[in-house]
Recover the amino acids of this structure.
C-alpha cells in the first residue's frame, strides 16, 4: 500500500502563502496543514488485484485512479467467512470502485450483481472488467451517487441478499458519525430479512470496509448486528447480519 500525496513542490508553494511570526506559529500551521492534506487524500492500492476464486479465478482487475479496491487477502478472508452462502445470491456493491467484490461474488456462484458508483472513470473500468470476465448478463452497472440510488429505490420492493459497502475515507468523519450511521441504516433496509421476516431463510448480510480506527461500534443500527471484524493494517472489514 502507498499513500498518494501531492508533489513536494506544490505543497511548498501552498505553505508559502501563509506568513508566520514565530517558530511556534510555524509549527502549529505546519501540523494543521499536514493534517488537512492527509485527510483530503485516500490511500491508493498500487499492487495488482485479481479474482481469487471461482470461474474467473486469477483474472486481473483494472483499478480506477485514486481507488482503494479490496486486496486479494481481504477477499480471501471475506469469502472464507461467508462460504457457500454466496451461491445463487443477489449482490449489491456500493461505492463499487473497480467492482472487485461483485466480480468475486459472480465468479464464486452469485446469481446477479448490481454495482453503484458515481465516478465516470469507475463506471468505465467496471464495465470493462465485467466484459472481460464474461459476466455481462448477470451484472447491472449504475452510475449514481449512493445516496441518490438509495432514495430512488426507497419505495420499491427491491432487495439484495448480500450488500458490500466501501465508502470513501472522507465520509468516515469521526465528528459526524450520525451521517454514516444514517447511510448504513438506510442500506440495511434492502436486505431481504428486514421487510420479509418469514419469507427468506437467508435474511441477508452487510459487509463494510472502513478505517480501522473509525468508531463503528458506537453506531446504532436498527436492523443488523455485527458478527465479526477482520483487521488489515489501516483498514478493517466488518460483517453484519439481520437481527
Amino acid at each position: 500500500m502507498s499513500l498518494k500525496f501531492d508533489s513536494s513542490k506544490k505543497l511548498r508553494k501552498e505553505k508559502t502563502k501563509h506568513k508566520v511570526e514565530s517558530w511556534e506559529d510555524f509549527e502549529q500551521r505546519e501540523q494543521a496543514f499536514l493534517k488537512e492534506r492527509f485527510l483530503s487524500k485516500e490511500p491508493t492500492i498500487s499492487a495488482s488485484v485479481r479474482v481469487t476464486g471461482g470461474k474467473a479465478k486469477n483474472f486481473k482487475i483494472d483499478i480506477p485512479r485514486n481507488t482503494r479496491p479490496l486486496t486479494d487477502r481481504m477477499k480471501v478472508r471475506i469469502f472464507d467467512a461467508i462460504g457457500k452462502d454466496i451461491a445463487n445470491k443477489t449482490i449489491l456493491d456500493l461505492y463499487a470502485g473497480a467492482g472487485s467484490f461483485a466480480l468475486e461474488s459472480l465468479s464464486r456462484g452469485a446469481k446477479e450483481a448490481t454495482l453503484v458508483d458515481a465516478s465516470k472513470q469507475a463506471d468505465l473500468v467496471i464495465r470493462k472488467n465485467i466484459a472481460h470476465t464474461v459476466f455481462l448478463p448477470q451484472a447491472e452497472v449504475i452510475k449514481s451517487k449512493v445516496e441518490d440510488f438509495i432514495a430512488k429505490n426507497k419505495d420499491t420492493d427491491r432487495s439484495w441478499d448480500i450488500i458490500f459497502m466501501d465508502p470513501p475515507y472522507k465520509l468516515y468523519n469521526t465528528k459526524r458519525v450520525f451521517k454514516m450511521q444514517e447511510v448504513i441504516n438506510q442500506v440495511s433496509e434492502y436486505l431481504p430479512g428486514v421487510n420479509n421476516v418469514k419469507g427468506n431463510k437467508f435474511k441477508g448480510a452487510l459487509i463494510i470496509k472502513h478505517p480501522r480506527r473509525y468508531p463503528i461500534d458506537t453506531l446504532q443500527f436498527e436492523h443488523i448486528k455485527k458478527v465479526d471484524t477482520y483487521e488489515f493494517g489501516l483498514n478493517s472489514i466488518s460483517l453484519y447480519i439481520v437481527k
